[in-house]
Structures are given as structure tokens and as C-alpha cells.
Amino acid sequence: MFGYDIGISGGVTSMDDFLKKFFMNVYQKKQHARENNYCKYNNPLLQLFTSSLYLAALVASFVASRVCTKMGRKPTMQFASIFFLIGVGLQAGALNIVMLVCGRIMLGIGVGFANQAVPLFLSELAPAKMRGALNICFQLFITMGILAAGLINYGTSKIHPHGWRISLGFAVVPAVILLIGSFAICETPTSLIERKNLDEGKATLKKIRGTDNVTAEFESIVAASEVARQVKNPFSKLMKPSSRPPLVIAILLQVFQQFTGINAIMFYAPVLFQTVGFGNNASLLSTIITGLVNVFSTLVSIYTVDWAGRRLLLLEACVQMFLSQIVIALILLIDLKPTGSLNHMEALIVVTLVCVFVMGFAWSWGPLGWLIPSETFPLETRTAGFAFAVSTNMLFTFIIAQAFLSMLCSMKAGIFFFFAAWILIMGMFTLLFLPETKGVPIDSMVDKVWKQHWFWQRYMTDVNEEQMEQVHPHVK
Q1: How does pLDDT run across 93-148, given as a tens digit for each residue?
Q2: d(CA 123, CA 134)
Q3: N or C: more exposed end of the chain, with fewer CB within 10 A?
Q4: From the CB of residue 236, how many other CB atoms can be counted at a distance below 10 Å?
Q5: Alpha helix segments (H runs only) across 72-128
Q6: In which domain, by residue range, is 349 found?
Q7: DSSP characters for 233-289?
Q8: Is 323's pLDDT higher than 90?
Q9: Region 282-308 average pLDDT
Q10: Helix, strand, coil share of the chain (percent; to 5)
């Protein structure tokens, strides 16, 4: 659902039938042969069509956090699919811009609920030894959604005048799959035990582990749930110094993930490729190529994250993405004037470099931006902390989606230097401030990760006091 929406909007907004229906002035601009290459699609309402989804998801993630805690991960996913189905109906049947944007907002609420529940569901269900690989499947299916959107856009772009309605309407498929699937799956043992359904929680744990020998894991979850139950306000607990390391890292990972420039490329890849000289069909085909690269590169992360570690993948990708952005920027700066286009060879080089960039992102900042926050928060602040991660991701996705076309118009090729500078900053942050969490049990993060880190250990001085207070609440 999430991936399909990331991928579908760029293709739809490059379709003439869609522009003529809702954004006639953008369509007329596009027809002017000598119109500035970098400013063809610069329109705040067109950007709002894409970005409104992420603003709605930002707000919805905090509501979803409460639902996740009080009702469980499974009902949260069911709510997500229902909101999504309503949004698909409004979008595909849109008669005016208000209906179109309302549909995007409903989709955004669905995305906020799904993105809150699914990574937590995966982390809580996974055995510790394969936690990284299983959680990255979340990102894998995002990339598959993006690829599916590219393929559908390529086909529907030839269907006039309602090809764009078919593209938007096909979003019903993942929504229905999620709705049906959410009735078939079990609730996580952690959520059941947290809500005092101990017998059902133990039975579910035996079922998903395939053994009756789950006493140690069951007692560990029960103990964590008891600690979590004593925390009446997890959002307040997040403000304490000992919660700062995972909270700061979770938030900054989402900021950095968006400021790699990945969603600017994924949202507007057809627009971007038209800007450098590809025709409409050729640009949509190029988007399919980047989608395939995205899917297969995410598989690399699944197979390497639990032995190579998180830091190595992130640092290697920073080098790869930085060099790609710099070379793209130099080619556009030197050879893409406000009118005209790149020659065929240069356009192919730009597409190749975009693929190299996507490759680096797909095995690092894409999946690990979701994995690391899902494994570093303790149970008592897990849904609240992850809500901050999801909402931050949606906020900065909204900012990039709303600002990219205007930035492309005003900064021209400089926009790629802008993103390259951010990649340099995030590489330095990873090197200095991001500890390795590979193979570390969630319950041991404080002792094995935060207390051992040269910077974050200073925030751990109150941990023993907090633990003592939980055991002996009247002892100060």
C-alpha cells in the first residue's frame, strides 16, 4: 500500500489526461516547447496532491500508537485497510480537486496506521537471530509496491482519457490483501501479554515458535510487560534522559532517510526523466528500471544485515549515494540548459546513476530507517517511540514532496548538490553517533550498546535510579 502510493503519484502527475482534468495550467505550461525545463511542473496544488497523504499519515500515526497499545497490532492493520479502501474510492472516482485531495488524506490515514503497526508486528514476531532480515521485508514490499506502480503507470498511460483512474484504482488490490490477511494472522504474543491475555499469549508464542519450550521467552515478555504497565504515560517516559538515545536516533534516521533525496526521485522519477530529455513513455519505462533495481537491492540487505551489521551498510551507501548525486548534478549543471535536453548518452548516464543511487539506498537507509527504531525502544515506550519515528518520516516526506518541484525550479541542478551535502552530514553522524545493534538482544541494549558508547553513555546515569524506583517506588 505504502510503496504503491509512493510510486503511483509521479506517473499519474505526468499524464496529460490527469493534468487536463485537474491542473490545466500545468498542462499548458508543459506544452510550451521553450518553457524552462526545471519549472514545467512547478505548481503548489500539484505538489499538494502528492504530499497531502504524508501530512495525514503524520497525524494518524499518533492515534495509531494508542490503538496499537490498547487494541493490538492486528486491529490497527484492519483499520489501515478500511481507511485505504475509502481513499482509493475517492481518488479513482474524483470529479474535482477537493475530492482528489480528500482521497489522498484518507490514504494517508491508512498509511499512518499501517506503518505504525507492521514494523512492530514483524519485530515482535521474529526470532532474535533473524529479526533484521524479517523486519526488512517491510521495506522489500514497499519497493515491490513502487515497482508495481511503475508497471501499471506504463500500461495505463496509453489508455485515454481515464488511464489515471485505473492507476489510482489499482491501489484497491494491496488494501484488500491487507484486509483479508489481517483476519488470517494472529496477534503478537507481546501485544496479547501486554493486554493481560496471558494464556492466549503463551499459546500464540508456542504456535509461532513451533515448540512448547517457550518458558524463558514467555517470562521475559511478561516481565517486560509488567515494567511497561507501570509506565502510565509512555510519551512522558520518552522525555527522560535514558530514553534520549533511541529517540534521537529514531527521529534523525527518518530525517536523514528523506534528505537522501530518495522520495524526490521516486515521486517524480517520470518528471525528472522527462526533464533530462526522455519522452513520456520512455520516462515511465526508466521508472520501471529503477523500481526493479530497488526491489533486488533490498534483497541484498535482507541477506547481509544480520552478519555485516547496520553501520557498515549505512556508511558504504553514503559514499555510493554521495558520488552518484554529485555526478548527476555536474552533468545537469554543465549540459542541461533551461531549454533543450541532454543528448542520448548523457540521459542514459543520468538514469544509470539514479539506479546506482537507488541501489545504495535500498540496501541501507531505506530498510534500516525502519529496522533500527523498531529494535532499540524497550516495550514500555515502543509504540510511543515508534510513533515519533513514523510521524517524523511522514513530516519530512511531506516537506520533500511539497517542496521538490519548487526547489527543482529555483535551484535547478543545484538540488542534487543540496541532497549530496545532506548525505555527507548523515555519513558523519553514522560514523560518530550511531552504535552497532547487530545481534544485541532488545533487553540488553542499555548495558551492551548505550552504556558502552562514548557519547550516549552520559544519558544512562539515571537508568539505575529508574529501575530502583520501579522495584521500590517509595525509595529515593
Answers
A1: 999 989 998 999 999 999 999 999 998 898 888 887 788 888 888 889 988 998 89
A2: 8
A3: C
A4: 12
A5: 73-92, 97-125
A6: 2-471
A7: -HHHHTTSGGGHHHHHHHHHHHHHHHHTTHHHHHHHHHHHHHHTT--HHHHHHHHHH
A8: yes
A9: 84
A10: 80, 0, 20
For residue 303, CA distances in Å to 59, 133, 367, 466 come to: 34, 7, 12, 38
Place of cell 492493520: 77
- The predicted pLDDT at position 271 comes to 61
Q: Which burial class, exposed, middle or buried, applies to 391 when counting CB atoms under 10 A from its CB (0-12, 13-18, 19+)? A: buried
| Residue 309 · residue 438 · CB < 8 Å | yes
* 329 neighbors 414 (Cβ within 8 angstroms): yes
- In angstroms, the Cα distances linking 439 to 218, 333, 445 are 20, 45, 10
Among 306, 431, 311, which residue's Cα sits nearest to residue 365?
Answer: 311
Give the CATH number of the domain where residue 164 resides.
Answer: 1.20.1250.20
- Residue 76 CB contacts under 8 Å (≥ 6 apart), including other chains: 64, 67, 68, 113, 114, 116, 117
Peptide bond into 161 cis (omega under 30): yes
Would you state the cell numbers that stand for residue 258, as one nine-digit string? 528523506
CA distance 179 to 75: 10
Q: Has residue 476 been placed in a domain?
A: no
Lookup: cell for 167 = 492507476
Q: Residue 300 is which amino acid?
A: V
Hey, what's the torsion of the CAs at 57, 58, 59, 60, to 10 degrees?
Answer: 40
Write out the three cell numbers for 342.
541532454
Which residue bears the cell 498511460? 157
